[in-house]
Design brief:
alpha/beta, six-stranded mixed β-sheet
Length: 227
């Protein structure tokens, strides 16, 4: 089943068109990566998918439902956009509150259990759980964004350069987390500058160049080997 389908998508900011007839699809249970140089339109594509910017033209389908008419700033239900650094932490939420506490149940079990997993993976977040999210360092905010996606547990995880600002050790942890998400049957759309690491865990990759997409490679990633 195709979870996300984009056909001839055009989007941008005001009168400036950034994406030109971008097409790609993400099937259920896949990891699909977008790669490209800075300014190629990768993050703009994710913002369009997440309905954070208006779409000029094209088709945008999520779980066989046309979501293009959705209001701007309205993400498709079941999609978890995880943007980088302070972009999602501009308010005054404390680190712990950002995870959606008080604890609740989701499809993967108690949120409190998942939170323990996040803190085991990123111990610095446990140390700073009472700190304002906006005062965390860039790398710590990145960890918090990834952790929040793990807690929310949706159908489609959307990651925008999740390794940015992290140390090499944490970069390896991030890709291991994404591989683990995939092993649990989740679907991932990933934008990542570290193309070498991203391609190791991806089923397919698209290249964005000057706002236009092309299929770079396709392989049968088994999901068992990890990055």
């Amino acid at each position: 089943m195709t979870l996300l389908a984009i056909e001839n998508l055009c989007a941008g900011y005001g009168p400036i068109k950034v994406l030109h007839d971008v097409s790609l699809h993400v099937d259920e249970g896949e990891i699909v990566t977008l790669i490209g140089a800075n300014g190629a339109g990768k993050s703009t594509a994710l913002r369009a998918v997440s309905r954070l910017i208006p779409i000029i033209s094209g088709v945008l389908m999520f779980k066989n439902e046309n979501i293009r008419p959705s209001l701007p700033m309205q993400s498709p239900a079941g999609a978890l956009p995880t943007f980088r650094r302070a972009e999602v932490f501009s308010g005054t939420f404390r680190c712990l509150k950002t995870f959606g506490f008080p604890p609740t149940q989701n499809r993967s079990g108690p949120v409190s259990k998942l939170l323990s997993t996040v803190f085991d993976t990123f111990p610095v977040l446990a140390e700073r759980k009472r700190q304002l999210a906006s005062t965390l360092s860039g790398g710590e905010q990145q960890m918090l964004a990834i952790g929040r996606a793990l807690i929310a547990d949706g159908d489609l995880f959307i990651f925008d350069e999740p390794s940015m600002g992290l140390s090499p050790i944490f970069v390896k942890n991030v890709f291991s987390i994404i591989a683990d998400i995939h092993k649990k049957g989740k679907t991932v759309l990933l934008v990542e500058q570290n193309a070498t690491m991203a391609l190791k865990i991806s089923n397919r990759a698209y290249v964005l160049e000057n706002g236009r997409s092309s299929l770079k490679a396709q392989r049968n990633y088994c999901g068992k080997c990890g990055p």
